[in-house]
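The freezer alarm interrupted the setup, so I double-checked each line after restarting. Inputs confirmed:
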Amino acid sequence: LCSSPSNRSRPLSRVAVSGGTHGNEMSGIYLAKHWLRNPMELRRGSFAVTPFLGNPRAIEKCVRYVGRDLNRTFTTEFLSSAEAEDKPYEVVRAREINQTYGPKGSAQAFDFMFDLHNTTANMGACLIVDSEESLLPMHMCHYIQTHYTRSPCPIYLYKLLGEETYSINSVAKAGLALELGPQPQQVVRADLFTQMRDLMACALDFIELFNKGTVFPAFEIEAYKITGRMDYPRYPDGEISAMVHPKLQVGVDWK
Amino acid sequence: LCSSPSNRSRPLSRVAVSGGTHGNEMSGIYLAKHWLRNPMELRRGSFAVTPFLGNPRAIEKCVRYVGRDLNRTFTTEFLSSAEAEDKPYEVVRAREINQTYGPKGSAQAFDFMFDLHNTTANMGACLIVDSEESLLPMHMCHYIQTHYTRSPCPIYLYKLLGEETYSINSVAKAGLALELGPQPQQVVRADLFTQMRDLMACALDFIELFNKGTVFPAFEIEAYKITGRMDYPRYPDGEISAMVHPKLQVGVDWK
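Predicted 3D structure, all chains:
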């Protein structure tokens, strides 16, 4: 990455963090609830962070969503179509979030939004950014990779060419999603809870340095993009006939 | 355990195995589907096993159940009350299973039923029997513990004093449930699939030996029973305020 946030950039003053954008991914839900009780943990000298629960109804039922996936609902189509009556709950909720932390694409939008996720896949502490053109999040990723060394932190750039952003943190001016695994849905693992809390502390330290005028030099970094999708092998009747090899699925030797 | 199945006991001729009694516990679902395609794997010299899918509708949706927990539905109340109309799907399904492999408590019932489960908890390959008075299953557990050494196989005796049996394998004359973890719901782990398959092979070898008149000597064995339930610590508003310690939750050091 050949650019760095200039110290002439404006400091970030309004930062939010969503836990429970998916209501059965427990690290972020436990963290957001913890921070709502103990907001000082998210305070730094130059700014403070507003924690919130992304999808309260899904959290209550401990399911990913109740009507449709909230984290695919922050597009013009859903945020700006006619009345929300008869719409899934998540469309109504997306508009509330857009009103509070956006509106998306406007000057009033929050400066930054974090979004906290889990996966059952064994992918370490994955950092998800829309694209490499998002300079501030990319510098944050680089800072995290340099300073947080207790697990690998691969970077995943999710936005396909020409695609509109649709995720919850796209309502803010910039954003980063954390995707920690492996953890079963509906289960909270203390080790991943601690890992996510430490990663967030590291990311907030970066913002604090940025706000204080620190110049972050250029760097090269490795990141992953989707290049294609591969289905499972199947029987002629369509049933899946294979499974992921144990050496790929679990990071530890299970014997 | 001071008794042993006598070689004057009648051999077991009709044995069944249910996968997907809970529709999101994947090891048994994959195994039952595999055996339905390859029934020879379940064949022994003196008997054969009938595999079946416990809760097909829940399996299709990949959820634990659609109306009520099938594995709590094999009681007199649910099996014998009036017409099944307006009843949850699982009540109808329990009656089908009772007709096919029971009726529960009758001389026509199958000799043995296995039931395959997963858990997100780190409890190894748990062997679940109703009570220590079930001599044949207890001897099977002892045989498995002696011959299957790739993971701990603790025994859990689930039936409380005076309680009616309610599980799917209670429709057969005897039964054993396997509960393998940790595995996320809706996820299939190849290592646990292999473990369950090997445990089943071991259990069938025991039945084959029993059928051939092998005498199994008396033994002492360790087994677990519920002695009480402990809630999580909670905040005054009822919200859970703690989580399981990482050294207890995951069998491996996660660093």
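Quick read of the result. Chain B touches chain A through 28 residues (CB under 8 Å).
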